[in-house]
Design goal:
The complex is a heterodimer of chains A (230) and B (120).
Chain A: H1 2-16, E1 27-31, H2 33-44, E2 49-52, H3 58-66, E3 70-73, H4 76-80, E4 86-88, E5 94-96, H5 98-104, E6 113-119, H6 121-124, H7 127-140, E7 141-152, E8 163-169, E9 172-177, E10 180-181, E11 190-191, H8 201-207, E12 213-218, E13 223-229
Parallel strand pairs in A: 2-3, 2-6, 6-7
Antiparallel strand pairs in A: 1-9, 4-5, 7-13, 8-9, 10-11, 12-13
Chain B: E1 9-12, E2 17-23, E3 27-30, E4 33-39, E5 44-47, E6 52-64, E7 67-69, E8 72-80, E9 85-87, E10 90-97, E11 102-109, E12 118-119
Chain lengths: 230, 120
């Protein structure tokens, strides 16, 4: 009986986060309440400035520019994995140089963006970069601007697939596994980044404590969507 | 019977390094290094997998396999292939981005008679 229930659980787990990497990146669809809220703002206002810090997506560019908004794209997770950012600390261990990272990335004027799409960045990014990155995002966002981020729940394992998100409709996303050449691995050997940590609700509230308000949407695939107002 | 038309294609090989202005009235394939500017107006530019371009680029269509650091203006279409690494602002009518391509910059899609599209 335990075998049956274990197999049953595997079935359910695999329906939301496949563990085997297919040869061609598979696209999964999911509804997103957060994207729905963002889409409502995009549809009701003109000339907004949108920053997408997830993996580059032509779908997203089409979605935003098609509604007459400006789109900026910057893949921060991939940028954070640049080997040139690794410097030895006092003990000789290689650590990420956060100052250099912020000198080379997210370099925009203050109060520039109306909407920022973080997707799952905070869950997969090196821990030392997360808070400084969120602080920088706060400074480049306009007051009243919206930020959307996804966080795994504690049920997610370290091998939870890292996705790139394509907006395909007003509340619809297509998810595609992301693979990079990770630090310490050959450039030809591309792997999906590992989940670095799981934030609980209090951690998330602390992360965005400088923002005006925060709203949680619970989803069924071990993801909490968080919509934050600057 | 007319001979079949073939488009002329200039080729900058992977051992070639050019600093300055590059302009022309034929298609260009860059697999070497170019620093400065590239202006092809009604022709296409392809940056090969070994290509490294640090320049402002203007062409009818642009296909990137390698690295580009600079603004890109494609009057028709921009294709970022899976190995493309682009840092700079992009202006085009249509854009296609393959899985794995990296783009850092502002994207401005200029519509022509309402048929501008982007696809991945």
């Amino acid at each position: 009986m335990p075998i049956v229930s274990d197999n049953l659980m595997k079935f359910f787990r695999s329906s939301s986060k496949p563990t085997a990497a297919p040869s061609t990146p598979q696209k999964l669809s999911r509804r997103s309440s957060g994207v729905g809220e963002i889409a409502r703002v995009l549809n009701s206002q003109e000339g907004l400035c949108v920053l997408d810090v997830g993996a580059t997506s032509a779908n997203n560019i089409r979605f935003f520019t098609g509604k007459g908004h400006k789109n900026y794209s910057e893949d921060l997770l991939r940028a954070s994995l640049d080997p040139a950012l690794r410097v030895p600390d006092a003990l000789g261990n290689l650590v990420v140089d956060g100052k250099k990272f912020l000198a080379e990335n997210l370099v925009y004027s203050s109060n520039q963006f109306d909407i920022v799409l973080c997707w799952n960045l905070a869950d997969y990014m090196e821990e030392s970069l997360v808070k400084p990155t969120i602080d920088r995002l706060w400074s480049v966002m306009k007051p009243g601007g919206l930020l959307l981020a996804f966080f795994h729940t504690r049920d997610a394992g370290p091998d939870s697939t890292c996705y790139r998100y394509h907006v395909t409709g007003s509340d619809l996303l297509e998810m595609q596994e992301v693979k990079f050449a990770l630090p310490g691995h050959p450039a030809s050997e591309k792997k999906s980044p590992r989940l670095q940590r799981v934030f609980n609700n209090r951690h998330i509230e602390n992360l965005f404590r400088d923002f005006a308000s925060i709203k949680f949407f619970l989803a069924r695939d071990n993801i909490r969507e968080v919509l934050v107002v600057r | 019977m007319d001979a079949p038309q073939t488009r002329e294609l200039a080729h900058i090989g992977k051992s070639v390094v050019i600093k300055g202005e590059v302009s022309g009235s034929e298609d260009l394939y860059v697999d070497g290094e170019v620093e400065g500017s590239i202006d092809l107006r009604n022709h296409s530019l392809t940056v090969g997998p070994n290509g490294k371009v640090k320049a402002s680029v203007s062409a009818k269509s642009i296909v990137i396999h390698g690295e580009v650091d600079g603004s890109l203006t494609a009057s028709d279409r921009l294709d970022l292939r899976k190995s493309a690494v682009v840092t700079g602002d992009v202006t085009t009518q249509r854009i296609a981005i393959e899985e794995g391509a990296f783009l850092k910059g502002k994207v401005d899609i200029q519509k022509e008679s309402g048929k501008g599209t982007a696809s991945s």
